[in-house]
Specification:
- The protein has one domain.
- The radius of gyration is 17 Å and the shape is elongated.
- By secondary structure, the protein is mostly helical.
């Protein structure tokens, strides 16, 4: 179906942009395997795991619960992922940074994931309305 393909292309674009933005946030200062692993963990916790978890749950529900899952769960999961990343990577190295001070950074990937999850849901809703009109 075309909606799933649009979702897939959007996901690939998003993940490439998100990884690049996180990796080059401070400007490129040379390659470091430790920093690369840190960014991979951040992207896994705040984008990949939330996307596939929310997608799996969205596909197993219908109607309003599917839309609520697609709208709420991605941002909640990115916040949890960022919190885990904070505890493991940020707090031990930068004690002056607080979790409430950075938690707003979970909103961007959460909203992007929600938009991607809504594409097939809206397409199926439109198809069902067309079927009832015919």
């Amino acid at each position: 179906m075309i909606a799933e393909r649009i979702q897939l292309v959007g996901w690939i674009i998003f993940i490439f942009y998100y990884f690049s933005a996180k990796y080059f946030v401070g400007g490129f200062t040379g390659f470091s395997i430790g920093y690369l692993v840190s960014v991979i963990m951040l992207v896994m916790l705040t984008a990949i795991i939330p996307f596939y978890t929310a997608k799996w749950l969205t596909q197993r529900t219908t109607g309003v619960p599917a839309f609520a899952t697609a709208l709420i769960l991605p941002t909640a999961l990115t916040a949890v992922g960022l919190s885990l990343y904070f505890v493991v990577f940020i707090a031990p190295n930068y004690p002056s940074i607080t979790l409430p001070g950075i938690l707003h950074r979970a909103v961007e990937p959460g909203v992007a994931i929600s938009v991607l999850l809504l594409i097939p849901l809206l397409a199926s809703l439109m198809r069902s309305e067309e079927a009832t009109d015919a």
